[in-house]
Amino acid sequence: MNDPLKKLSWDDLRIVKVIGEAGNLAAAAGRIGINTSTAFRRLGEIEAVLDRPLFERRRSGYVPTPAGEELVALAQRLEVDIVSVTRRITGQDQDEAGEIRIATSDTFATWLLPPVLAGFTALHPGARVEVVVGNGALNLARGESDVALRATDDPPENLVGRRVARIAWAPYRQRRAHDEAGGHMPDDLAWAAYCDELAGLKANRHLETRVPAERIVFRTNTVQGMAATLAAGLGAGWLPCLVGDALPDLARLGPADEALSDGLWLLTHPDLRKSGRVHVFLEYCAAALTKRRPFIEGRGIEGHGGS
């Protein structure tokens, strides 16, 4: 009895997986380095081998059929296994040179990592560092990154690492406006809040429960946008102290609230922690961030470029 799956290669499964994840043929083709017509032809060949459609072609994009969902899930499991085995085979032989890919947020990429990376690359000239910014879920299991620097109180169970600090939050306002008001906050002071994926921040929930909705006149889904808007003079808002304390145009309106802090975690995949280059970077990064703990925890003020 013929098994059609035996006629499929990993490349075939990878095409199905990427189309399922992207939901769009052009985007999927771009991710795997082929043109759209080739992706369309390859998908047609795969469906012909299996004698069933794997995707419904809709205006909104490519939606997996039940058979397509099974094949996408199979390919995702295989990808994790392939990456894991490859790491175990090669990890012990990796020296300190080579590429290190770091996943983090725009806040940490701007305010925490630059002096750390400058120091590390000066100490290890053979290292090449790539920083990928995003607030989404971690995908270290798939080999998309080697290390993650994240704000969380609940790191994923499939990753290993250490908490290097607590990220303090406090309210800030434009310094000039604060000084002109004699250090007082007027009752009708406008406030800025976070939205989208940052709406669930402890500091944001705290603000939403204490400030009337009509006084919240601005929302953003980035810390960078919040800092720039407050510095321009649009009311008050909450920022990580490592951002707010480093900006001379901002004044802190009160002490950091420990209940609103988040853990700062340095994470990697278990298969990578013994890799020479990853281990050396983790140790260096943890030591460098530990030195800056007072700054991160709102207990010390340093310049933007400080180390």
TrEMBL record:
Ranges of residues in domain HTH lysR-type: 8-65
UniProt-listed InterPro entries: LysR-type_TF_proteobact-type, LysR_HTH_N, LysR_subst-bd, WH-like_DNA-bd_sf, WH_DNA-bd_sf
Domain of life: Bacteria
Keywords: DNA-binding, Transcription, Transcription regulation
A molecular function (GO) term: DNA-binding transcription factor activity
Entry's Gene Ontology BP terms: DNA-templated transcription
Pfam family, one: LysR_substrate
Family indicated by similarity: Belongs to the LysR transcriptional regulatory family.
Name the record gives this protein: LysR family transcriptional regulator
Organism for this UniProt entry: Tistrella mobilis (strain KA081020-065)
Lineage: Bacteria, Pseudomonadati, Pseudomonadota, Alphaproteobacteria, Geminicoccales
